[in-house]
Amino acid sequence: MFTRKIHQLTTRCFTLLFSASVMAMPDKAMRAGKWGVAIVPTLTNSKVLQFDNGAEADLNKRSGFGMYFGYNFNGHVELGGIFGASNSNYTGTRVIDDGNGTTEKFTANMYTSTLAIDLAYNFLKGPFTPYVNGFLGSTYIDSGIPTGDITTGCWWDPWWGYICAPVAQTYTSTRFNYGAGIGLRYDINRILFIKGGVTQNRLDISTANSSDFTTYQLYIGFKF
After folding, report:
1. Interatomic CA distance for residues 189 and 132, integer angstroms
2. Tens digits of residue pLDDT in 160-218
3. What is the number of other CB atoms lying within 10 angstroms of the CB of residue 110?
4. Which of 62, 146, 162, 181 could form a disulfide with 88 if both were Cys (CB 3.0 to 4.6 A apart)?
5. What per-residue confidence (pLDDT) applies to 12?
6. What predicted TM-score, i.e. pTM, was given to this entire model?
């Protein structure tokens, strides 16, 4: 009697565990025909950009944040768009036009934002798969370096209310960017997924050395 009860209890436990694992296990075609939305924390490696006549920009390692929205045509192909932004300090070297090649160090804060189209290929239809991706888009760059122009800006301040004050204009630019990456994806269930990868991103700017950046990305999202 006791042995039979133990057997029945064990059988029920295994049945419950198997049922839970089946519910949690995504089917192979679970991505096909579904939209995906994700938040994307990023980390970009430091980089020294060299410009004409010895000018440099030593960019610190910087973290950023992005949003992703895409569509899975099938278990392999996914097309989406991604918006990302980052902000960091950097050290610059400028060359004074005095005929002597005098250099001067300065620090500034750089802001960038990127909007790109991303095409990913998942090698496997199952929940766990490696992938490759390629992307192209445009990047807005605010160098943080004053142009010398002053304008008046107005805003609502939490302490002082509505105020207007002089605002220094900075050098900005919008550049074409493109790149590719590799990573791993895991579909946790029929709703949630995560994936992480590394990309090589190149900016279309005139530098003496390569203007490519290595960025690590983590996607945390859901499908619908």
Report:
1. 22
2. 889 888 887 888 989 999 999 999 999 999 999 999 999 999 988 877 677 889 999 99
3. 20
4. 62
5. 55
6. 0.78
Q: Which residues of the chain have pLDDT under 70?
A: 1-29, 208
Angle at 143 between CA 141 and CA 145, to 5 degrees: 155
Output the six-digit token pair for 217: 């990305």
Determine the Cα–Cα distance for residues 174 and 153; give it in Å rounded to an integer: 22
Question: Which pair of structure tokens corresponds to residue 22?
Answer: 């089946």
Asked whether 115 and 81 are in contact (CB, 8 A), the reply is yes
Which run of H or E residues covers position 24?
Answer: helix 2-24
Query: What are the distances in angstroms from CA 24 to CA 36, 37, 171, 173?
Result: 18, 20, 51, 47
- Which pair of structure tokens corresponds to residue 138? 């445009």
171-207 in b/e form (b: 16+ CB < 10 A) is eeeebebbbebebebebeebeebebebebebebeeeb
pLDDT of residue 144: 86
Cα distance between residue 195 and residue 214, in whole Å? 17
Tokens of 117: 């189209």
Per-residue pLDDT at 22: 41
d(CA 224, CA 221): 10
> Is the separation of the CB atoms in 199 and 212 below 8 Å?
no
Cβ atoms 136, 177 nearer than 8 A: yes
Q: Which pLDDT belongs to residue 208?
A: 65
Q: Are the CB atoms for 127 and 30 separated by under 8 Å?
A: yes
Amino acid at 207: T
| pLDDT (0 to 100) of residue 6 | 39
